[in-house]
Write a structure and sequence with these properties.
mainly alpha; Arc Repressor Mutant, subunit A; elongated
Length: 80
């Protein structure tokens, strides 16, 4: 299990990839609100008219895509 400190660093690093990720504008807005305002899944769900579980899925999809972009960037830097 990651410490909260490491999770915070990872969130800050991965959030830089938000503009480059192929997601709907609404989903990007949900992720941005989650990362910057620390709104709960349940509250975000109420704001956007979806379930808290759906918000969790959107956040997870973002993390997977951002992590993939991060790894791709590291590989490209290593080849240079």
């Amino acid at each position: 299990m990651q410490s909260i400190y490491l999770q915070k660093i990872e969130e800050e690093q991965l959030s830089q990839y938000l503009p480059d990720i192929n997601m709907s504008d609404r989903d990007k807005e949900i992720v941005q609100n989650y990362l910057t305002k620390k709104i709960t899944y349940k509250k975000l769900g109420e704001i956007y008219g979806i379930s808290g579980e759906r918000v969790r899925q959107i956040i997870l999809r973002f993390y997977k895509k951002a992590r993939g972009l991060s790894l791709k960037k590291k590989r490209e830097e290593e080849r240079s």
